Amino acid sequence: MTTNAILEPETLTAMSPQAMSAQSISAKLMSAQSNSTTVATANEAGTVESDDRRWQSVLRRDSNHDGQFVFAVSSTGVYCRPSCAARRPRRENVRFFLTPDQAEHAGYRACLRCRPRSVGGNTSSDSVKAICRYIEQHLDEPITLDRLGKEFHQSPFHLQRRFKTVLGITPREYADSCRLRLLKRNLQAGDSVTRAMYDAGYGSSSRLYERTASQLGMTPDKYRRGAIAATIRYTCADSPLGRMLIAATERGICAIQFARTDGELLEGLKREFPFAARKPDNGGLRSWVSALLQHMRGRKRKIDLDSSLPLDIRATAFQRRVWTYLQSIPFGATQSYSQVAKAIGQPTAVRAVARACATNPVAVAIPCHRVVREDGSMGGYRWGIERKKTLLEMEQQA
Question: What is the pLDDT of residues 276-288, one digit of tens each?
Fold first, then answer.
């Protein structure tokens, strides 16, 4: 299923003095990489320095020689770049190789701390890029220096110092700038302040107002009311679950809802997108309605549905992991909330999985109805338990 992701590593909204634009961050990373990258052009015939001189470079942690050779430690079975910050081994335990491939052919494995195989030979910028990607994928979770240090095998002090040297901001300020960008996008789309806050990874209303009022130049609610919202087309149709609404932006489906009457559906769409320009479009959305109905009746399976229903949904990193996994649950099968939590690598996040299911904006397309309680009972469903039972019965009989 095609979705439009909201976490774009290359783009950031500029913060106050602490933050920077995506362009400046990208430029700093590229500059850091180019300024410290040395291409290995020497060969064994004599242009490469002797082992003694290499050893001196290792002792100095000389980053100018990163990419020219690696050194391997027989007592640990690990090979590193010359600038690696790890404790220096005894000289008699060290061997030198021109390339990582040679070291691995000899039976050594790459150091997880300095990552000698990383492109460009610049451990600082490569490490900071990896930290940025990690932060972007965990905005809805507490991101502390201790947690980052454990994840990237660095002390919190040195991790923050290296990060700030490359980007000019701390990891916390980087996370704040990412959250602010997501908040502004969600408010511009017409989300309620509470939903925009939650989806951007803020933990409480007071924290949101404290950190964003000065950055937005106004309160989040005022920013939201002044935002220009997208146009949303919608249509209503009969379905085995009652009246069904499908709504879409120019990029794809943004809502699939069920209710008893069209009035309830339109009221629900208004609550979901209060400032959007909502326009009926019975003809343009007809093919998507047909595809969804065929899927519900078992005539169109997952692969066909994925190609015919593009989605345009906003999600936190955690929600997206849950929803992507739900789409892999076979037609007619069910899993428990705890099974889903384990499958996405967070076995203790059972309640968070349940919340992600409850906030799914596109029923059936993302099959949250296939998640049940541990004892096999239905659990909750945004569109009602009876609709959940009906959906599962239809799938099992198809």
Answer: 788 998 788 998 9
Name the amino acid, one letter, at 219.
T
Catalytic residues, by residue number, are 80, 368
What is the amino acid identity at position 250? Answer: E
Residues in a beta bridge with 248: 233, 253
Burial of 52 (0-12, 13-18, 19+ CB in 10 A): exposed
CA distance 362 to 364: 7
Are 19 and 173 in contact, with CB atoms under 8 Å apart?
A: yes
Alpha helices in the chain (DSSP H): 22-36, 51-60, 100-105, 123-137, 145-152, 156-167, 171-188, 193-199, 205-216, 220-226, 262-272, 286-296, 302-308, 317-326, 337-343, 350-358, 385-397
Residues 6+ apart with CB under 8 A from 78: 72, 108, 109, 110, 111
In angstroms, the CA 303 to CA 307 distance is 7
Residue 94: phi and psi, rounded to 5, are -110, 135
Torsion of CA 257, 262, 265, 270, to 10 degrees: 140
Residues of the chain with confidence (pLDDT) below 50: 1-21, 34-48, 119, 121, 227-228, 303
- C-alpha distances in angstroms, 109 versus 21, 81, 92, 242, 256? 37, 12, 19, 59, 50
Residue type, 376: G
Helix (H, G, I), strand (E, B) or coil at 237: strand
pLDDT at 239: 93
Position 96, amino acid: F
Q: Are 171 and 160 a contacting pair, CB within 8 Å?
A: yes
Task: For residue 273, give the nearest of 383, 196, 368, 184 by alpha carbon.
Answer: 196
pLDDT at 203: 64
pLDDT of residue 162: 84
Q: CA neighbours within 13 Å on the CB side: how many for 396? A: 10
